[in-house]
Amino acid sequence: MSAMRIAVGFKVTPDYDALRPADWARLAAADGDAERAEAVRYVRRVFGVFDEAALELALRLRDARAELGLETGLAAFTVGGPEAGPFLATLQALGFETARVDPGPAGEHGGLDFAPAATAALVAACAQRLGGDVLLLGTRCGPGESGVVPFLAAEVLATPCVTEVTALEPAGGERLRATFSADESPVRATVTPPCVLAVGNAVVSLLRVPTLKDRLAVREVPVAEYTPADLGVDLTGAPGHAAAPTPLEPVDRSRAGLVVPGATPVDKARALYEDHLGARLEHL
Q1: Which of 99, 173, 192, 261 gives 77 a disulfide partner, CB atoms 3.0 to 4.6 angstroms apart?
Q2: Which helix (H) or strand (E) holds 154?
């Protein structure tokens, strides 16, 4: 029996939660992809939260299958620029075969963020090149968060797609048992590859950390690099390729607050009671 092959597509994005109001103002005023990229150039990069969960689920599924004597090959790939290098190195140390799809001028400075059809075409083509029986993707990833890339990739691959997956386990042979959310309730179903699984709010959301020994063991292993032409994808004809955002602004999550005066904790407690809590307690 041949080994199951699991390919995981992920995205590396700026940590938008770390942007200051001034950075958001620059981002909103940016004219074109190049200026938008400059506005977030100094912000640290992170995995998409659902993509990170998909990567860890793949590792756990590999471990569970190994306990049953079943072989599992893992591959991880991203569509983007060289900023993904450290993330690919981490995944290599964890046992993934890695690849990067460089979209070139079509995807320069995040030009594919708002072009899900073009992104899905590259994702599907790379998954085929890597030989994935199962394609794991996050349900969505910023800044576009269209949520349609897994469905479009499944359409290209002509395979079924299960979305909002929260857990995966072996189900005998080459089948998998997927737990997913439907109508706000958990559902379990047995799936047979090939298929696309879109990971949602999984209980396991953080990727494990490789050891220094693991990192050193793969430090000379190259990352496979592909262009759209290598994968037989013509981005110039992809629907929505020229899509671009109009205004950008942060969601205001601030809450009202005040500073309680007082030189000591006792003074602060007294001021809190007398100025705020006392009158409320009297009405209870």
Answers
A1: 99
A2: helix 149-157
Are the C-beta atoms of 139 and 50 separated by less than 8 Å? yes
Give me 141's structure tokens. Answer: 């990833």
DSSP β-bridge partners for residue 226: 101
d(CA 41, CA 35): 10
Q: Which of helix, strand or coil describes residue 57?
A: helix
Contact call for residues 162 and 222 (beta carbons, < 8 A): no
Please give the model's pTM, rounded to 2 decimal places.
0.80
Write out the residue limits of the CATH 3.40.50.620 domain(s) in the chain.
Answer: 4-237
Contact 147, 18 (CB under 8 A): no
Length of the chain: 284
The domain 4-237 is placed in CATH, from the list 3.40.50.620, 3.90.226.10, 3.30.50.10, 3.30.470.30, at 3.40.50.620
**Whole-angstrom Cα distance, residue 53 to residue 206?**
6
Interval 220-266: pLDDT, tens: 999 999 999 999 998 775 555 555 566 666 777 778 888 888 999 99
Nearest CA among 158, 114, 168, 177 for reference residue 140: 114
